[in-house]
Amino acid sequence: MNLRQLEMRLERLEGFERPTARLEQYQTPAPVAARLLHHAAMQGAIEGRRVCDLGCGTGILACGAALLGASAVTGIDIDPAAIAVARRNAELLGVTVEFLVTDVRDPDLDQAGLACDTVVMNPPFGAQKAHADRPFIDLALELASVIYGIFNEGSAPFVAAYTEGRATIEEVIRCAFPMRRTFAHHRKDRVDITVEVIRLSGI
């Protein structure tokens, strides 16, 4: 499946029904999700691999990984309503994904059961709560040796410092992230921000 075909399939998926600002529930745009997944697939990190999507929201990255031939895909999110949408999205695409309602910060999380080859994620940028992305990074490094994450522009130095001794940044890809009006405090129908897709390799 080429990049455009993947993007077109992902554009069909439902978004959040009632997004919550506290959880920074912005829908991952199909072009960004497709670019991350296609790039990861070209690097051998998706097809035939066990993939986990942390903070999966409505499941766009998890469903896309399944479309690209991952051997098993798990998506976890704290919001049951988002997981309900994610399950419908998987059904729409005819893919098999195990979706779990759980908190990445839960000390009783079954990390052994979630262990995988590749983590994909679009963690909170920390706009509502500082350092909200750190638990996602920490868990990702526990679960997999290869991680692809979407971060706010300029995050690479922080990610490098935060993961020092645990991982190295292999690649940073900048791309536009069209953010549509989602919450009451938004003033414009759409704002294009720049994000960084960062590939981390565990040490």
From TrEMBL:
<dbReference type="InterPro" id="IPR051720">
    <property type="entry name" value="rRNA_MeTrfase/Polyamine_Synth"/>
</dbReference>
<dbReference type="GO" id="GO:0008168">
    <property type="term" value="F:methyltransferase activity"/>
</dbReference>
<dbReference type="GO" id="GO:0032259">
    <property type="term" value="P:methylation"/>
</dbReference>
<keyword id="KW-0808">Transferase</keyword>
<keyword id="KW-0489">Methyltransferase</keyword>
<dbReference type="InterPro" id="IPR002052">
    <property type="entry name" value="DNA_methylase_N6_adenine_CS"/>
</dbReference>
<protein>
    <recommendedName>
        <fullName>Methyltransferase-like protein 5</fullName>
    </recommendedName>
</protein>
<dbReference type="Pfam" id="PF05175">
    <property type="entry name" value="MTS"/>
</dbReference>
<dbReference type="InterPro" id="IPR029063">
    <property type="entry name" value="SAM-dependent_MTases_sf"/>
</dbReference>
<feature type="domain" description="Methyltransferase small">
    <location>
        <begin position="41"/>
        <end position="132"/>
    </location>
</feature>
<comment type="similarity">
    <text>Belongs to the methyltransferase superfamily. PrmA family.</text>
</comment>
<dbReference type="InterPro" id="IPR007848">
    <property type="entry name" value="Small_mtfrase_dom"/>
</dbReference>
